[in-house]
Amino acid sequence: MIQIRKQIALIEELAANAWPAETVQTLDGWRMRYTGGRSRRINSVWPNLELGDIPLEEKLDLVEDFYRRKAQIPRYQMCPAAQPTDLVEILEQRGYTADAHTQVQISTLGFVLPRVETELSDQVEITNQLPDDWLDFYAKVENYTAERKTIRRGVLTRIGPLTGFASLHKDGEIVAIGLGVVERGWLGLFCMLTHPDHRRQGAATTVLQALGKWGQEVEATHTYLQVMENNPTALALYARAGYKHLYQYYYLEKRE
After folding, report:
1. Measured torsion, CA atoms of residues 35, 139, 237, 245, in degrees rounded to the nearest 10
2. Cβ distance 14 to 160 under 8 Å?
3. Spatial separation of the C-alpha atoms in residues 175 and 199, rounded to whole Å
4. Which of 31, 140, 175, 200 is the most exposed place for a label (fewest CB within 10 A)?
5. What is the pLDDT of residues 154-196, one digit of tens each?
6. Cα separation of 25 and 32, whole Å?
7. Complete domains list, the chain, with CATH
8. HEC string for 205-255
9. How far apart are CA 54 and CA 60, in angstroms?
C-alpha cells in the first residue's frame, strides 16, 4: 500500500508539472493553482504534501479566501495521495461536493506499443514546440472561445518537461492530435483529440503509437494518462492499448 501511494504521489507530481498553472501559491505544502478560465486542474488546490506548520482550519480558510479573491470557486483535486488522509470528510463537512471523476491509468511502453501497431505512424509529425496549426485544430474541434484558446496556449507553452506535440495529417489537413510530456522516465499523454469526421478510423491509435515511439526515443519506459470516467470510447481505446487503472481523482468544489 505504501509503495502504491508513493507511485500515485509521483504521477500526481508529474501530471501537475505537465499542466502548469499561471499562478502557484504554496501553502504549508499545498499548491493553490490559479489561471482563470474553466479548466479545473489549473484552478484548484493540489493537496498532496502537508508540512504541518499551519492548523488545518486556518489553511482551509486561506484557500477559500485565495479563490474568492480570484473570482473562482474553492476547489481541490482529490486523490489517494491527498493530505491529511481525512481531507475528503473534512471538506464534505464544509459543504464541498464531488465532480469530474477521472481515471489515471498506467502501463509500460514495451507493453503498449505492440498492441497499437498501425501503418500510418509515419504520417504523424511530432515537434517539441507548440505549432500554431496544432492549437488551431484543438480550439476548433473543442469550440473554444478566443479567451479559452489564449489560456490554453499559456498552459502549453509553460510546460517545463520535454514536450512532443503530435499531429496526424490526411490530405494536407490535421485530423488528430496528441501531446506527450516526458519526465523522469514517464511519458504522460494529454490532449488526445480526433476530428469528428475521422473518428473510429484508427486516428487516435496512430497518434498513440507515434507518441509511444517518440517516448522511447527520449528514454521513457513507462506511461500514464488521465481519462474521464464518462468517456467510454476513450476508455475502450486505452484498454485495448494495455493501460490499467491505478487510481481515481476528482474535484471537491464549494459552490455557494
Report:
1. 0
2. no
3. 9
4. 200
5. 999 999 999 999 999 998 899 999 999 999 999 999 999 999 9
6. 5
7. 2-102 (no CATH), 106-247 (3.40.630.30)
8. HHHHHHHHHHHHHCCCCEEEEEEECCCHHHHHHHHHHCCEEEEEEEEEECC
9. 10
